[in-house]
């Protein structure tokens, strides 16, 4: 998979890709991540990427031309499955969206800034708009990092044990059950006996029940789907 991220702040975005699972995925050539600084696509000497809103109003708007130039250049090199715009008024990211995106070959992620992008960018280029939650960030970069993490860990081969992504919370619309490791008892707090029974079907059943109980308590909305 190849991900091209268009941003005015590439330095803000780089560190999540330089550690842990994302770093290993890149090193193993399971994913390529490329950063494109929008200021490299400006023609004026101040390298401006934003301008005042027509009609008045507070806040700057990202201009269509640098974004057009950057996306058009990328599109001349390969076909893209999705061109995603990170924005608080997009579709809220969930595990289902991450699963689908992880199957793609090439995606572009455009990070918004200031008040957002000129509507003509959205009309002409954007195929999907994603929000990471009902709150407003200073820009799309942190949202893009969240999206990339959620997607890249699902690419086959990225997680050492393939099954560990399958048992994540949300993967089957259930939250994950409680988990334990050593010691067996800590300050009087014991690990449930069933986990030492060696009876794997029984343990699996216990885990399913716990996952269901936790989902019912915390996220009953997930059980409705
Ligand atoms: N940009 C600003 N707020 C955002 C959000 N909640 N999700 C994605 N991109 C954003």
From TrEMBL:
Keywords in alphabetical order: Cytoplasm, Methyltransferase, S-adenosyl-L-methionine, Transferase, tRNA processing
UniProt family annotation: Belongs to the RNA methyltransferase TrmD family.
Organism: Mangrovimonas cancribranchiae
Predominant subcellular localization, coarse grouping: cytoplasm
Localization (cell): Cytoplasm
BP term (GO), one: tRNA N1-guanine methylation
tRNA methyltransferase TRMD/TRM10-type domain mapped to chain residues: 1-224
Name of the protein this chain belongs to: tRNA (guanine-N(1)-)-methyltransferase
Catalysed reactions, as listed in the record: guanosine(37) in tRNA + S-adenosyl-L-methionine = N(1)-methylguanosine(37) in tRNA + S-adenosyl-L-homocysteine + H(+)
Catalytic activity, EC: 2.1.1.228
Gene of this entry: trmD
Subunit structure: Homodimer.
GO cellular component terms, A-Z: cytosol
Biological role: Specifically methylates guanosine-37 in various tRNAs.
Positions bound to S-adenosyl-L-methionine: 112, 132-137
SUPFAM superfamilies: alpha/beta knot
Any one GO molecular function term: tRNA (guanine(37)-N1)-methyltransferase activity
């Amino acid at each position: 998979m190849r991900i091209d991220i268009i941003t005015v702040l590439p330095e803000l975005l780089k560190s999540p890709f330089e550690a842990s699972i994302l770093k290993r995925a890149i090193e193993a050539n399971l994913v390529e991540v490329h950063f494109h600084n929008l200021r490299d696509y400006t023609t004026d000497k101040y390298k401006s990427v934003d301008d005042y809103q027509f009609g008045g109003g507070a806040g700057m708007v990202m201009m269509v031309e640098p974004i057009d130039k950057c996306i058009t250049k990328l599109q001349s090199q390969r076909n893209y499955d999705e061109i995603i715009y990170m924005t608080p008024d997009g579709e809220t990211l969930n595990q289902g969206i991450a699963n689908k995106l992880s199957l793609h070959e090439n995606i572009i992620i455009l990070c918004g800034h200031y008040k957002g992008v000129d509507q003509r960018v959205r009309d002409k280029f954007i195929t999907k708009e994603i929000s990471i939650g009902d709150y407003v960030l200073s820009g799309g970069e942190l949202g893009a990092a969240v999206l990339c993490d959620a997607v890249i860990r699902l690419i086959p081969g990225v997680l050492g044990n393939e099954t560990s992504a399958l048992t994540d919370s949300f993967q089957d619309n259930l939250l994950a059950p409680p988990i334990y490791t050593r010691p067996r008892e800590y300050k009087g707090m014991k690990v449930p006996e069933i986990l030492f029974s060696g009876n794997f079907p029984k343990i699996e059943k216990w885990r399913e029940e716990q996952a269901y109980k936790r989902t019912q308590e915390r996220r009953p909305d997930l059980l409705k789907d």
